[in-house]
Amino acid sequence: MADQATDNYDREFSLNLASDSQKLIYAIDEALGRINEKNYGRCLKCNKEISRKRLHAIPYAILCIDCQRKEEGKRKTS
Ligand SMILES: [Zn+2]
64-72 — which CB contacts under 8 Å span 24+ positions? Predict the structure, then answer.
C-alpha cells in the first residue's frame, strides 16, 4: 500500500522535474557530484539511504521520499 503510493508519487515528481529542464540538469549534476563524493543514494537532509526503488525511478534523487514530501509541502504553502 505504502509502496504503491511511493511509486505514484515518484512518477509524478519526475514528470514535474522533466517539465523544468533547467532544474533537471542541475539535479543530475548534483547527483553526479555526489557519486564522486560517495554520497550518492543518501538523503541530503536526513542522511538516510534513499530507497533503491526511488533511485531506480529517479536516479538523480537527492532527498529521501520523506524529506522530498516535506519540501514539496513547503513549496505549496509558500
Ligand atoms: Zn531524508
Answer: 65/6, 65/9, 65/10, 67/43, 68/13, 69/9, 72/13
Rounded to the nearest angstrom, the distance between the alpha carbon of 43 and the centre of ligand 1 is 5
27-58 confidence digits (pLDDT tens): 888 888 887 777 888 998 999 999 999 999 98
Give residue 64 CA to ligand 1 midpoint distance, Å.
4
Ion ligand 1: protein residues whose beta carbon lies under 5 Å: 43, 45-46, 64, 67
What is the pTM (predicted TM-score) of this model?
0.55
